[in-house]
Each structure stands twice: as C-alpha cells, then as structure tokens.
Specification:
disordered C terminus; alpha/beta; about 25% strand; disordered N terminus; two-stranded antiparallel sheet; about 210 residues; about 25% helix
Length: about 210
C-alpha cells in the first residue's frame, strides 16, 4: 500500500484505505442523512439502556468513559494499534475534537497508539471544532436527536498530512462525528476503541 501527501484545502482523488465502502445512516428525520466513513473498532460498545450488559461489556464501557478523561490510553492503544495496516511506510493519526472543542484526551490516545505502532505513525491535530456543542451522551439522556455531521462545525487546521489518515476517537455512536471529521479532508478512516451503533459492523484487520 502506497502513501501520498495531500495539501490542505485539496481533496485526494485516490483514497488508499483498506475499506473503500462508506455507509449511509438515516436518523429519524429523512433530512438527517450523512455518509459514515469506514470505521475500525477494537470493541463493540453496548449501552445498558438497550439491555442488561455483560461484565465484559461493562469493562468496555468503563474504559470508553476513562478515555474521555485521558485515562486508560495505553490499554486502549494496544488494541487499536493492531487494527492498523502494518505494511505502510507512514500514516497520520488525527485526534477528533470533543464536544467541548478539546483534543487533549484524543491526542493522548493518538500518542499512545503511535508509540505502540512505531515511528511510521505521525500524530497531527489537523481538525478544530470552532464552537462547543452538546455531547451525544447529554442529548440521548434528554431524549434529543443526535447531532448531524453539519452540526459539528469542524474546520481544517495545520499543514500537510501523510495518507492514509485515521480519525481517532474513543467511541463511535451514530458515526456523525466521524462523518463530519471526514468531510474536513474528503477522506479518512475512523479508528475508535468502541463502536456503539447497531448500524455499524466494526472492521478488523485480518
């Protein structure tokens, strides 16, 4: 697999990803449709609001919440790094901003993944959220619809990126956050510790 460099503001005509099919996810309103990027997930995330969860699922949930605080990064990074293709001379890990605009926790996670993967992995904070938003967790608890990709208000920052690009977050819920991050570049694969949406089938490296 080859790598290439893309200049900010330009979209690549070639996306060297292992998974080249995006999914369409439709929420309750027909107007809220967004394209979900391919997602690499170390584990499935099951909410206790859906059904009683197992001890293993409870452990996944605990780690996912700890990652939001910048904790348990080494444990999660070990499981996430093995999902990345090993034959690449270079790749970029981009931390996805939180609902509060912070990238601190996901940047720590990116750094831990890069340490596990090796010198070919480069961490680049190339996405910025221009305004805070309500978290998906808050909205779900209050019976509100989740955010669409357009609601996230992401913009591109920084310089050149080496492809392929992996968009790093702790959990994928509906995929809207990753979809919004992907729109900033026009390409990119989601890399998360846990995938919570029943619409997704986590993709693991063979």
């Amino acid at each position: 697999m080859r790598t290439s460099i893309v200049q900010p503001g330009r979209k690549s005509c070639r996306v060297p990803e292992r998974c080249n099919q995006s999914r369409i996810l439709e929420q309750r309103s027909p107007s809220l449709i967004f394209r979900v990027p391919p997602i690499l997930a170390a584990r499935r995330y099951v909410s206790p609001r859906l059904r009683p969860i197992t001890a293993e699922e409870a452990g996944t949930r605990r780690i996912a919440y700890a990652l939001k605080r910048g904790e348990e990064t080494k444990l999660a990074a070990k499981e996430m790094a093995v999902l990345l293709p090993t034959e690449l001379p270079a790749l970029t890990l981009v931390p996805v901003p939180s609902s509060t605009c912070s990238i601190d926790a996901n940047r720590r996670l990116c750094n831990a993944i890069a340490e596990e993967y090796g010198p070919a992995a480069r961490v680049m904070p190339a996405i910025k959220r221009i305004i805070p938003v309500e978290s998906s967790c808050f909205r779900r608890r209050h019976g509100m619809l989740g955010l669409t990709a357009a609601d996230h208000k992401f913009v591109r920052v920084g310089g050149w990126v080496v492809m392929p690009v992996f968009l790093v977050d702790n959990v994928a819920t509906t995929g809207a956050t990753l979809a919004a991050a992907r729109q900033v570049f026009g390409f990119g694969t989601g890399l998360v510790f846990a995938d919570a949406s029943p619409a997704h089938l986590p993709l693991v490296r063979s």
